[in-house]
Every structure is written in C-alpha cells, then in structure tokens.
Amino acid sequence: MKTKWVSGAFLVVAISACAVDDTTGPPQLGAPIPGYTAATLEGDSVSLSSLRGEVVLLNLWATWCAPCRKETPFLQELFEEHQEDGLHLVGVSLDTGAATEQVERFVEDYGVTYTILHDPENRAMELYRVLGLPATFLIDRDGVLRWMRYGPVGETDQEFLSKLEDALG
C-alpha cells in the first residue's frame, strides 16, 4: 500500500514539474511586456529594459521566412522615417544553430540598419508565445505593449500606423 502512495505522489510531482506556467501567458495589450535580452551579431547584449524612454518596435523573424523577407523593406523605411522621433526598431533573428553568417548576409542584402539580435535558442518565441513568424510588438516609452501582430506588417495597415503615431507622440 505504501508503494502505491509513493509512486502516485511521484507521478503528481512529475506531472506538475512538466506543466506549462500559465501565469506568464501571452503578452497583453496595456501591460508591461516581459523582459528580454539577446546578443547583437557583434556579440553585444541588448535588453528591452535598456531601451526604456524610446518607442520600440520588436520584430521576430528568420532568414528562411518568406513573409519576413517581404516586410523587411517596409520596416527599414519605417525605421529611417521615425528614428529621429524616438523609434528603436529591434529585429530578432530566430534562425537556429550557427546561422550568424546567413543573418549577416540577409542584413546586408536588405540594407538593414536597425538593431539586429540573434536568438538561436528561440527564447523569444517561447517568452512571447509566438507560433509562427513574423511577429511584431509595439512597446511604448514606458515598456508597455501597445500593439501586436502575429503575421506580417505592411504599409497599408492603418491600425498599426495609427498606434505607432500615438506611441511616438
């Protein structure tokens, strides 16, 4: 009888240890975005908290993602247009493994001048509950999530452009 109780208790503990933590759920509009830190292609560490005071457009992408490739020129234009207004665009490459060279080539081919981070362990996908790429998050100067999209962003997206203008003030 004692063996059944011990193995039953072990099973409950083992199942609990593997459960997903529902308290961290997906990012919520109007709430602070969960903290995140990753390295640039040069190896410098950048955290979202270090960008407080700026409007941050966080874009999760990969070199193999066709919609990501399509939206990159628009994101570059947006960055160039609003950089002086306080927009800090952060692109997080979720290319796995030793893909740094591919990411560098992508950045060069597309003329990307905004901040690029590389997250080969895909921590951002888990943290922000992203199932597919691209995914984009607009974070205000106080670190609060103001808009998000799971899927590509385009120049005809009036809701996004309006939220961006509001955040930039």
The side-by-side strand order for the widest beta sheet comes to: 2-1-5-4-3-6-7
Q: Supply the CATH architecture of one domain.
A: 3-Layer(aba) Sandwich
Largest sheet: 7 strands, mixed
Tell me the total number of β-strands.
Answer: 7
SSE topology string: HEEEHEHEHEEH
Q: At the third CATH level, what is the topology name of one domain?
A: Glutaredoxin
**Tell me, what is the CATH class of one domain?**
Alpha Beta
CATH-assigned homologous superfamily of one domain: Glutaredoxin
- Classification by helices and strands: alpha/beta
User: Residue share in helices?
Assistant: 25-40%
**What portion of residues belong to β-strands?**
15-25%
Q: What is the end-to-end distance?
A: 68 Å
Which value, in Å, is the CA radius of gyration? Answer: 19 Å
Average pLDDT level? 89
Count the DSSP helices. Answer: 5
The gross shape turns out to be globular
Q: Which residues sit in consecutive blocks of at least 5 with pLDDT less than 50?
A: 5-23
Write the layout of secondary structure elements.
Blueprint: H1 2-18, E1 37-40, E2 45-47, E3 55-61, H2 66-82, E4 87-93, H3 100-109, E5 115-118, H4 123-127, E6 135-139, E7 145-150, H5 158-168
Parallel strand pairs: 3-4, 4-5
Antiparallel strand pairs: 1-2, 1-5, 3-6, 6-7
